[in-house]
Amino acid sequence: MKFAYLLVGGCGGCDMAIVDLSEKLVDALEHLEVVFWAPTVADVKYKDLEAMPDNSIDLGFVSGMVRNKENEHLVKVMRQKCKILVAYGICAALGGIPGMANLHTKEELLENAYIKSPSVDNPDNVLPSPESEVNGYKLTLPELLDYVKPVSAVVDVDYFVGGCPPHHEHVARIVEAIVSGNLPPKGSWITDGSSVCDKCPRNPALKGKTRSFISEVKRMHEGVVDEEECLLQQGYLCLGPVTQGDCGALCPKVGIRCAGCGGPIPPTTDFGLRAVSAITSLFENEKVARQALEKYPVFAKLLYRYGLPGSKLGEKVEILKKREVEAKH
Amino acid sequence: MSQAQAEVAEKKNEEWEPNILVIACNWCTYQAADMAGSLRYSYPPTCKVVRVPCSGRVEPEFVIEALLNGADGVLIGGCHPGDCHYKEGNYKALRRFEWLKKIVEELGIEPERVRLEWIAGSEGLKFAEVMKEFDATIRKLGPNPLKKV
Questions:
Q1: Is residue B76 part of a domain?
Q2: How far is the alpha carbon of A222 from chain B, nearest alpha carbon, in Å?
Q3: Is any Cβ of chain B less than 8 angstroms from the Cβ of A272?
Q4: What's the whole-model pTM score?
Q5: What is the rounded CA–CA span in Å between residue A181 and residue A193?
Q6: Is A263 helix (H, G, I), strand (E, B) or coil?
Q7: How many CB atoms lie within 10 A of CB A132?
Q8: In total, how many domains does chain B have?
Q9: What is the mean pLDDT of each run of 10 residues along chain B (149 residues)?
Q10: Which member of B68, B91, B146 has the closest CB to residue A286?
Q11: Average pLDDT of the segment spanning A87-111
């Protein structure tokens, strides 16, 4: 089975999750022939991928979101060359952490990163541009797109995998499923369908206790986290109830609330809206709901930390942002 | 924008009629709509009523889905606090609505396009008045930008 791996806008953490398979990866490599893994692992160039015949690769993984024109082009090339294309990791599947950039304009982002940031030394206020000339040499950079897009907004994706990064044991299950041909229908998430709460040792239901309502909302830096009790019961807005639990509830196990990197549990399509239903039903009264809104300066960044570009309203970002910009002028 | 274009846009705006979805709970707001009819109170024909068992049944997805599919405004009607047929459905609706409204606003849609209102079964007049008021609000805001796509 020919295998290709492309990292576009992501950080490389998802590549690490595959390497973390260690000896399982060695077993899997008996079945997989790595023909392309760039830019992180194999010594191949983008033009090598472009030169391969169409549909010649059996399985392709794309990790990272589409942030610039080069990403967009490469994802299209990957689609042409691969029979099965997997959006691997939450960035590729829904946009991930960088997807929160869609709450801002491109100009705001560039200004913050290259001019306003306190660690930046840029007296001439130089911004990256697609073409520039240095010492007589013409240099080019891929052009930044206006908005972050998940891979599925550019090409058809056969399977989605959540996680930031996906837990290596989950990756092992995915690889096994693919090698044995035991795959769900196209267009689905590869997950066991459980939530983080299903796997969480803090879950009162698993301990035979009943839940009580939340009377106060706390952020992670407030108070000391109890070792045993459910984080939601303590007032921390854990998104475990609506997040895929293939990670085995890693974060809640060490006292950190789930931020939702696993992606929505199928058939949920919009992570944030489902979280609204799930979490607010646990509140004692509407005052607690309002208290939560006051504690978080940008609420959408809590509920859509990992999935804004792939959410129902997030997909319409171009229209919504355009209006906002027009309204400002 | 040239003058001709402006005239066309203005004309389009005149022709445009709001499309308002009213999600009404079976026990109060839907009864109020009935009452408004019996008492001959008129309300704008732009308001289209959908009946649900309880305002607590309304998921945030319903509202967003409506906005994405051609609604210019969505109003959720439930029983007054304490009057819910299922005891606490309307309280749950309120908690959800607080968060939903904030998200809608942060993502760039006018929060006035979504509204939660308590209308009891006997308040036929209030139902008609709220519908008129909401219709006026939506007319002021103009067509929902998401509709054009």
A1: yes
A2: 21
A3: yes
A4: 0.90
A5: 19
A6: coil
A7: 12
A8: 1
A9: 59 80 96 96 96 96 94 96 94 95 93 96 96 96 82
A10: B91
A11: 94
Where in the sequence of chain A do the CATH 3.40.50.700 domains occur?
A: 2-98+148-189
For A312, the closest of B64, B94, B148 (CB atoms) is B64
Nearest Cα to Cα of residue A185 among A96, A80, A266: A266
Asked if B64 and A313 come within 8 Å (Cβ–Cβ), the reply is: yes
| CB contact at 8 A, B31 and B53 | no
Distance from CA of A85 to the nearest CA of B (A): 28
Contacts of A298 in chain B (CB under 8 A): 106
In angstroms, rounded to a whole number, what is the distance separating the alpha carbons of residues A278 and A259? Answer: 14
Q: Could you tell me how many helices (H) and strands (E) chain B has, helices first?
A: 5, 4
Is B147 an interface residue toward A (CB < 8 Å)?
no
Distance from C-alpha of B6 to C-alpha of B17, rounded to nearest angstrom: 19
- pLDDT tops 90 at residue A234: yes
- A39 preceded by a cis bond (ω within 30 of 0): yes
**Residue B67 belongs to a domain:** yes
Interface touch A320/B102, C-beta < 8 Å: no
Return the number of CB contacts < 8 Å for A and B. 87
Superfamily of domain A2-98+148-189 in CATH is: NADH:ubiquinone oxidoreductase-like, 20kDa subunit (3.40.50.700)
ipTM passes above 0.95: no
Q: What is the pLDDT of residue B146?
A: 87
Asked if residue B149 belongs to a domain, the reply is no
Are B145 and A323 an interchain contact pair (Cβ–Cβ within 8 Å)? yes
Please answer yes or no on whether A300 and B61 come within 8 Å at the CB atom: no
Give the closest residue to A25 by CA, choosing from A10, A8, A5, A49: A5
pLDDT tens figures, A21-73: 888 888 888 888 999 998 888 889 999 999 999 999 999 999 999 999 999 99
Answer whether A61's CB lies under 8 Å from A82's CB. no
